[in-house]
Amino acid sequence: MPQESNYDDFAQDYADENEFSMLNAYYERPATLELAGEVAGRNILDIGCGAGPLSEQLMSRGASVSGFDTSRAMVDLARQRLGEDADLKVATLGEKLPYADNSFDDAIASLVFHYLPDWDYALEEVRRVLKPGGRLIMSVNHPILYPFNHRGKDYFQLTQYTDDVTFNGKPAQLTYWHRPLHEIMTALISAGFAIERVWEPPYVKAAPAGVIPEALRDRDAFLSFLFFSLHTSKVDTNTP
Fold first, then answer.
1. 104-110 and 43-47 as β-strands: parallel, antiparallel, unpaired?
2. How confident is the model at residue 237 (pLDDT cuts 50, 70, 90)?
């Protein structure tokens, strides 16, 4: 399913921002890596790999990583980062994935699913390429942010919305789909995933002072994304 946000338009600027920003470098990525835990020897699919910073971290921890992104420009940047032999593909979450059944120990979907209006087939495909007992680690926009940032909007309605953002000092737009928490949970469970952990982590306290906004420096908690650690059944129920 095509996504509204076209990262080809601002791939390099996003990659530069992602490298050092609070939300990515000192909040989302560390939390995702903490959920992933010990990954040495594991075969991992990086869903929406972007320019490859998460893949690089996983590989440095001993994992074998394959990645895909719907943006060709992002995949090109990831290849520059990870090497010409890196297993990277242009593919779209929500469509048939170019991987065989039972290929991966883990799949990591970092800030990807909130671009999709329908999660059912996307989750079905992720589950298909995971081994029995495989894990899905994912982060999405926290559902409370939509009504908080768009006053008067209905939290309970599946809604497409667009935010103006800045990457590397340049304006851009991202279009998301808001879904309430109960719909998120229903989609995950209906797709055959068991929930190990739901997490609302803090940002990294060791982040440079200039990265953290003044209003957040004294807080022990921070709310922007919602994190899940999930796993499939140890019996492959996809096999007849």
1. parallel
2. low
